């Protein structure tokens, strides 16, 4: 009897310990449930505050620049001579260089990227798709400085065989190479958009007697149009913001021209040049890089907003 009583007492103690441990564990879990959302909120806020900090810095320095250089002169001037004795700060040479190089890049990237996406989505077997798509996306992982030297030392000499007037540094070669760099982005995003179209739509069109090419052109592409156009816009945004390729292969000429065989400078290349040591802090040329950076920021922001609008405007509900 005494032994049974001792066992029962020991079991009672163990049960009380288990209940206490359970309560402590539950309390700790409750604390974690309350703390984790606040920790995650702080982490999410860091990226927002970083963006606000960048925007604040750009705005304050840009305002300082426009207190020295008139707003109209900056956006309508065709002469950019920041290191001259009589400096001029027209941004149009940089804008034309940026837009022309981006236009050439998209002229290369859009047709090749879209055709590749159509093949991978509609014609390639699963085995071929699993092999080809990762190989294609390797292009996206190559450092842009490698692309820059590729444009300068390989593409330009080849082009000069066909275009005798092509300068050693020009806007054509980096534009083409930027297009090659953007092909994986356009192909991958477009292929994802087309692959998300339900098979029932393909099968329904084929059942009505359409050929595979007709299904692709009249059913799949229109249904995936929002994703396809968004990939184009993101590609343009990527081209506008590209730095190293144009810095290496397009030179630093600040001429206002539309001749793609000549050297031009883009906005990103100008920022690299100015931050390379030519601009003493507090000088007008120093503040000009913030004005150019602000212009670039607005460009890319508009492109991203346009991509979001297109995705929502042309989204198909299946």
Helix/sheet category: mainly alpha
CATH architecture of the largest domain: Orthogonal Bundle
As a percent range, the share of helical residues equals over 70%
> Helix segment count?
12
Average pLDDT: 86
The portion of residues forming beta strands comes to under 5%
Largest sheet: 2 strands, antiparallel
Function: Part of the binding-protein-dependent transport system for phosphate; probably responsible for the translocation of the substrate across the membrane.
Keywords: Cell membrane, Membrane, Phosphate transport, Transmembrane, Transmembrane helix, Transport
GO molecular function: phosphate transmembrane transporter activity
Membrane topology: Multi-pass membrane protein
Could you please describe the fold and organization of this structure?
The protein has 318 residues and is mainly α. Helix content is 77%, strand content 1%. The chain has helices at 2-66, 71-76, 92-123, 126-138, 144-162, 172-195, 199-207, 212-223, 225-241, 244-249, 267-278, 284-313; strands at residues 80-81, 88-89. Strands 1-2 form a two-stranded antiparallel sheet. α4 packs antiparallel against α6. It is flat.
């Amino acid at each position: 009897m005494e032994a049974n009583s001792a066992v029962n007492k020991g079991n009672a103690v163990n049960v009380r310990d288990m209940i206490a441990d359970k309560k402590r564990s539950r309390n700790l879990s409750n604390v974690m449930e309350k703390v984790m959302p606040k920790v995650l909120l702080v982490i999410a806020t860091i990226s927002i505050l970083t963006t606000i900090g960048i925007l604040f810095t750009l705005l304050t320095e840009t305002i300082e620049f426009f207190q020295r250089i008139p707003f109209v002169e900056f956006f309508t001037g065709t002469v950019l001579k920041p290191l001259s004795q009589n400096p001029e700060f027209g941004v149009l040479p940089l804008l034309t260089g940026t837009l022309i190089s981006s236009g050439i890049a998209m002229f290369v990237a859009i047709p090749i990227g879209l055709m590749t996406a159509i093949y991978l989505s509609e014609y390639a077997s699963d085995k071929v798709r699993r092999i080809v798509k990762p190989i294609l996306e390797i292009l996206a992982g190559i450092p842009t400085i490698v692309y820059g030297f590729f444009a300068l030392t390989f593409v330009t000499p080849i082009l000069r065989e066909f275009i005798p007037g092509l300068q050693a540094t020009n806007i054509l070669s980096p534009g083409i190479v930027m297009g090659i760099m953007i092909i994986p982005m356009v192909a991958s995003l477009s292929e994802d958009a087309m692959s998300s179209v339900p098979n029932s739509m393909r099968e329904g069109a084929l059942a009505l007697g359409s050929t595979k090419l007709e299904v692709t052109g009249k059913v799949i592409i229109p249904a995936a149009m929002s994703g396809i156009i968004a990939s184009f816009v993101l590609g343009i945004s990527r081209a506008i913001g590209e730095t190293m390729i144009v810095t290496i292969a397009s030179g630093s000429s600040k001429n206002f021209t539309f001749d793609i065989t000549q050297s031009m400078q883009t906005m990103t290349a100008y920022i690299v040049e100015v931050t390379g040591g030519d601009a003493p802090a507090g000088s007008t040329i120093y503040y000009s890089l913030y004005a150019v950076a602000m212009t670039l920021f607005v460009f890319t922001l508009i492109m991203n907003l346009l991509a979001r609008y297109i995705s929502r405007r042309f989204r198909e509900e299946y």
